[in-house]
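A further point concerns the way the authors explain their paired sequence and structure data. Showing the layout once, in full, would remove most of the difficulty. For illustration, here is how one protein appears when written out as sequence plus structure tokens:
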Amino acid sequence: MAGLEDVPSMDLMNELLRRMKCSTKPDKRLILIGPPGSGKGTQSPIIKDEYCLCHLATGDMLRAAVAAKTPLGLKAKEAMDKGELVSDDLVVGIIDEALKKPSCHKGFILDGFPRTVTQAQKLDEMLEKRGVKVDKVLNFAIDDAILEDRITGRWIHPSSGRTYHTKFAPPKAPGVDDFTGEPLIQRKDDTAAVLKSRLEAFHKQTEPVIDYYTKKSIVANLHAEKPPKDVTVEVQKVLSS
């Protein structure tokens, strides 16, 4: 492991400034809920940086636990190899492990979990054992018809990750990247048929989670159809109140 003398002084200064900024921030434990294309992925990095939170994406965490061969990761791999779904208890266990990291000291953003009421209950039980609770659930409320427009018009330049939209941010020349002239692709998930099945799953499984947290008076409904900057302003208002 490198000693402090091996770390560039600019990196040390930046880390010191980050810690000073973070020390004054209130702890926050947040859940982001919304259908695919509602803007959660756009807002979460902004919230993470502003409040010094860790971003817990359960899919990434599962893959990392499997790769690191942690005890929970090995159990998850066993289930995956059999073609089974990873149990809710395992996922909550992996979140519990992640919360021990220094980066989660001020709190977390959970995105993509809980997807069901059972998962929400198990998450609450785990947090209760830690003596904490979810502070706010941000509900990215948006009409299905707007999502279809947003998602089916999305095109990507694979090597750079640059994204375009036929309606909202079209490339200068149809079907090609502005900078390289290389062809753009559409992700397999970004079709009307895939979106329809994902939305059906969201309405059936995840909308009851919003009701579950509404009863606890911690849900903030955002107007997710607005431009991203306007949604950021809404989020800031909610989190500063």
Summary: Strands lie at 28-33, 54-57, 107-111, 136-141, 154-156, 163-165, 219-223. DSSP finds nine helices and seven strands in the chain.
